[in-house]
Fold this sequence. Notes:
The protein has 1 helix and 14 strands, in the order αββββββββββββββ. By secondary structure, the chain is mainly beta.
Amino acid sequence: MTRVPVALLPLSLCLAVTMTAALSAPAAAQYRPLPTTSQGAGGKPKGEPYHLEFGYNSWNPEPGIVISSESLGIPGTDIDVQANLGVEQTRTYELFLVLRPGKKHKFRFNYIPQRYDADTTLTGEIIFNGIRFPVNTQVGTTLKWDTYRFGYEWDFISRSQGFFGVILEAKYTDVNFELSSPIGLKFVRAKAPIPAIGAIGRVYIGSYASVTGEFTAFNLPDSIDENYSAHYYEWDIYGMVNFTNNLGARVGYRSHDVSYRAESDSGSAKLSGLYVGGVARF
Length: 282
């Protein structure tokens, strides 16, 4: 029988202990339970990820709209549709669609139709489209103001806690304004594509809720062309609750500030108010 030198016994024992510990460490790590997160498996909140989102919002903005139209060299009056024509606050809606081919890329579409009708007796004289409407004239008003938004969003910061990105979009407005009275029917229509740039940010609150804010803007000063000018400022902040990955609801506050001037015609709209809605995702 071969004898092992007594001096080598401690060294052999140390090597055996070291090898045993090294071999047992991966096994222990393999069976170690994964840490849990407040946002579920993978740290993803409800509603993420998705490739298609569409929804509906019910909006009740205050119609701060002013329109003026010149004709035959006769300047038009700045007509406040509430104060001068008796137009009342009316609920409208928004349809929106988001296509998301990648985690950080989104193509967006929004449509908001606004319809106002009123009948009133003028308490002050107005001039519209070259026609003078004297005091006590019975006037019927029809105003249609449609807004379309086509945009691209790039979320250059995207984490499980939220995201921050930039928005490039084109806003298209189509305004049709009519005044009817015993004097006659007069109308003006304006269409204008308006580019805009902005930013968006979202923070997730746990697994089921989030808060989002976005702002887009464009300004064409009259210093470029004294006959044409326009601006468009829009901001939107809302809270979202996701019941499942596919269904959610949101409540928010939106404000639009739009104005245009084309030669002697002009219009402006300051629309703001609360809205509620729902979304579906796939």
